[in-house]
Every structure is written in structure tokens, then in C-alpha cells.
Amino acid sequence: MKKLCELLDCEYDTPIDRVVVNSKEAGEGALFVCTDMGTSDRHAFIDDAIERGVSAVVVKRDVGEKSVPVIKVDDPNEVMPKICEKLYDYPLSEMTVIGVTGTDGKTSVATMIQTLMGDDVCGYSGTNGYGCSAFHRDTDNNLTTPDANKLYSYFREFADAGMKYVSMEVSSDALLRGRVRSIEYDVTVLTNITSEHLNSHKTLENYVECKCRLFSQTKKDGWCILNADSLHFEQAKAAATGKVLTYGKDPSCDMYFKNVRLHVGSSQFTMVYDGKEYDVDLPAGGDFNIYNLCAASLVMFVTGHSFGDFRDNIAKIDISGRLDIIDVGQDFYAMVDYAHTPNAISNLLRYLRLLDVNRTIIINGQPGERDPYKRREVPELEVRQADYVIFCYEDPRSEDPLEILRQMTENIHDFTNWEIVVDRSEAIKRAVDMAEPNDIIMILGKGNEKYQKFSDRTIYFCDEEEMEKHIVDRLRREGKPVKERK
């Protein structure tokens, strides 16, 4: 707990024990900060926060006399991380801070870093929640990088648990809204940048510039680890304030890979760094995961670790929601993956085509209230690259799922390898029922998420559980044995 005057330049000694940006979380001891999220004006919720017992308010504009202290600042978004640093006693000063950004691969790389380091010394924060060996907690707002008040509370938990490192995903929205503005990173990582989130950033140029801000927040004696094969590598390199190391396919990179062999659920390759070769057996498929492991391995090297320090931990890599395999004894492959951008889906389908399998069957939808351009681009690349595609709803939110599906399919009527099954569970059942030996069924878009959002409700729904249920039902109908999943 701190006094308000210890957190801000003011005369109030009001006790503060937490910072909130949602009036519903207000209460005694809370400081309500009116940050700009770009979607709503939080100044409109000041009275509600006060009614709920908030102890003080930070604003950007005059709001009149209130029954609690009101502190006016130029930019609440800029001030809030500084407040949180002080409130939580500068937790990042106790740890090495690693930030990972990119359109695709953030979760995989950030999770790989924690796995290679060991979760007894490295905390993780990102799409899959936050945690370490001492605890793991899901996040309630589904933000890859939450507001600074949440972030710094996580950092304090990590520091108190004895973590020496924190591996965090950094989204473009967090960079745009200033949620991580006060952080100076020891190591930053670029996976890739392709067109995405244009509903927020408006143009690709804005999006790229926002992503590259992360590298300008790297300490001068820190490291910027960049994918040299990314289309926007040069912009990231130009923004870098730390020492730059590159990774990719070309031997000119500081780390490169060769001798690639891809299988369902695994990859073998040779990693080359600093004149030495390392043979790697990665329990994840796809050359995109080879890129991800190279990035994570470079983080290990620049933080003073040898390959021997983390070799055994490679076998422990398991990224929830990414190429999750469902095997209950069926004679076809069934997988779930979070891929939802055109780049990620294209890379995934290219990987599947390289495997010694029969048909590739895709189940996919497009969410409501998100980038509309993907509704036409993704279905076209799917019907071109997969053997069969089943389109269904996916978090329609306030939009009509039938209208979303109409938009998705209006440009692919010349193709015959697709159908619409509106209900997602029924779409999964349809794919399971049509699967033949050595086929691959892949559900895309939501990974390990456990909900579906409609205009009037949010329901529990897990792609992986639905897939397993329908496969088990089919095996039992056919009188075949069901084995327990590992």
C-alpha cells in the first residue's frame, strides 16, 4: 500500500493498494485511472467508480468537484505504468525482462523461452494467462498484453516467487495504448509482421510502426533478436536500440537452420550459431516452429546460457492451443490450432502438405467485430491449399453468423471442396464422420479458448473437447476401442 502523494505529484495522503481501469472493480483503496482504450470514454464511469467506493481518480479533463481526490494529468495512459511501478515497488528491477512481438508466434516463442529457462526461474505472461512453477492463472479479459495495472501486479507476483526472468508477449494494441510504455527490455524478439489488426491501426504502415516501438524500448546494452526473413525486418532493425542478432534460413544470419525434416507433431533440424552446429529434435511440427525455437534459443544464448543448459528442456516444449493433437485411437489425425491470420494459416497448410498423409480437412470460421478483410482472404487460401474445408461460426458477437459466412464464401463459388455447417460442434462432427484413414482434420482459429461469444450470451465451448467427443462417439458406433489420451 502507498499514499497517493507517493504515486503522483499531489498533496493527498489517501491510502492506495491497487489501480483499476474498470469501474466495476472499484472499491476502498482503489485508484481509478481514466485511460483511453479507443473504444469508450472512461471518464463516463467516474461516478459509478465513486459509488463503488473508489478512493481517488486520475483524469485527463475537468470533471467538476467529486467526493474523492481527483488528479488531472496530461495523459493517463502514460502516467498509469509509472504509478504501477511505484505501487508494486519496481518489480522489473529484480528480473531480466524479455518481450516478444509479432503477428504470429508470440505465444509459442514466449512459452518456449519459459520452457527452456525452466518455469522455476522464468515467469510467462501472454495469451495463455500468466504463471510460473509456483502458480498459473488464467486472465479474465483475453488480452495478450493487459493494462499496466494488471501487468505490474503479475510482475510483483513473479518477483515474490523468486523469478529471475519474465517472458512476456507484447501486442501491437498494448504498444498503441501505452500499456508497456515504462518498460525497458533486456531482450526483445521479432517473430514476423504481416497485415493484421487494421480495424485498430487503420493502415499496415501504422501497424508496422507500432510493432517496431518495442525495439526502441530495448536497453542499449540489451539485445534485439530479429527474424531476418520477416518482410519488415529492416524497419525493426532501424528501430532497435539494443544490439541486433538475426535468425533465419540464410547462413548470413547470426543463427540459421538446415537439414530440416518435418513430421506430424515433430521436426528435426540442425541449428547453427557462432560457428557451432546443434542437432535438434523439436516436439512440434512446421518450419514456423523451427523459426520460433531459433528465436527462443538466441534468447538463451544472449542471457548467458549454453546449449547444454537447455538441450533437455526442448523435449518438454508444449504450447497449449498450438498444434494440439487429439489421439484416442482413431486411424486419422486430429489437431487444433490457434492460427487465425492469413500468414499463420498459409504456413500451417504448407506444412500439412509436406506430410505423408491423405487428405487435409479444415474447420474454420471468422469472428464478428474483427478485421473484415480476412473474411474473404482466408477462405480463398484455405480452399486452394486444403483438400476440404467446412466453414462454421466463430465468436460472431453482435454480428449475424450467417452474414459472416456469406461474406466468407461469396468469392469461392468456383470451388467445390467446401461446405457450410453453421453450428461449430456440428461442423466438427461432420469432419470426424467424413475422415478416412491417414486424413488430417484441423480446427483453426481458437486454439485452447473455452468460450463462444454471441450477441446475447457467452457459452462454454472448447474445440479440443468437441473434437475428442465426436471421435470417441464415432469409434463407439463402429465398435472400435477407445484409448485414453496422454
Ranges with pLDDT <50 over ≥5 residues?
Answer: none
Strand content is: 15-25%
Arrangement of strands in the largest sheet? 10-9-8-11-7-12-13-14-15-16-17
CATH class type of the largest domain: Alpha Beta
Total strand count, please? 25
What characteristic shape results from the CA principal axes? globular
Per the CATH scheme, the topology name of the largest domain is: UDP-N-acetylmuramoyl-L-alanine:D-glutamate ligase
How many domain modules?
A: 3
What's the multimeric state?
Answer: single chain
Give the termini separation.
45 Å
Specify the structural class. alpha/beta
User: Average pLDDT value?
Assistant: 94
Biggest sheet record: 11 strands, mixed
Report what the structure shows:
The chain has 486 residues and is an alpha/beta fold. The chain has three domains: 2-76, Udp-n-acetylmuramoylalanyl-d-glutamate--2,6- Diaminopimelate Ligase, Chain: A, domain 1 (3-Layer(aba) Sandwich); 91-316, 3-Layer(aba) Sandwich (UDP-N-acetylmuramoyl-L-alanine:D-glutamate ligase), CATH 3.40.1190.10; 324-477, Mur ligase, C-terminal domain (Protein-Tyrosine Phosphatase, Chain A, Alpha-Beta Complex). It has 16 helices and 25 strands. The strands form five sheets. It has an eleven-stranded mixed beta sheet, sandwiched between helices. A six-stranded mixed beta sheet has the order 18-19-23-20-21-22, with helices on both faces. A hairpin with a 2-residue loop joins β15 (255-263) and β16 (266-273). α12 (342-353) runs parallel beside α13 (374-385). The longest helix is centred in the middle third of the chain and has 16 residues, at 287-302. The relative contact order is 0.08. The model has no long low-confidence stretch (mean pLDDT 94).
